Amino acid sequence: MDKNEAREILAGVISELRTRSREDLRALLGSPYTQEIAGPSETTYQVEVQAFWDDKSERNLRVLGSIDDGGFSAFKPLTDDFIVAPDGSFVGE
Questions:
Q1: Which residues does residue 44 pair with via DSSP β-bridges, in sequence order?
Q2: Residue-level pLDDT at 70
Q3: Can you say how many angstroms the Cα of residue 4 is from the centroid of all Cα atoms in its chain?
Q4: What does the pLDDT average to over 9-37?
């Protein structure tokens, strides 16, 4: 897997997700989705996005994206995430 290419693709996916409302992101709870994206090198990557509560009080929502090329990287995909507070702000930023 070309890690630089994969990071760029995942960064684009995460960037788009960060523009969504908290309510839209809540829809990902219990319903992760996957998509295949072809990189400039013509490698096909699988991206998975899921959301889960980051705390027991179910206030902060963590959105996690992972990417792999279906080879050995599937056992240890690259990941990126962010946390959204109830007011829509990003936690830790």
A1: 38
A2: 87
A3: 16
A4: 95
Backbone angles phi, psi at 91, to 5 degrees: -75, 135
Cα-based angle 21, 26, 32 (whole degrees, multiple of 5): 120
| Domain extent listing, the chain | 3-84
Token readout for 65 is: 């994206």
Spell out the SS3 assignment of 6-33: HHHHHHHHHHHHHCCCHHHHHCCECCCE
Domain 3-84 sits in CATH 2.60.40? no
pLDDT of residue 72: 85
> In the chain, which ranges are E strands?
33-38, 44-53, 61-68, 78-84
- Is residue 58 predicted with pLDDT exceeding 90? no
Whether the pTM exceeds 0.85: the reply is yes
- pLDDT class of 57 with cuts at 50, 70, 90: confident
Cα–Cα distance measured from residue 56 to residue 7, given in angstroms and rounded to the nearest whole number = 30
Rounded CA-CA distance 13/37 in Å is 10
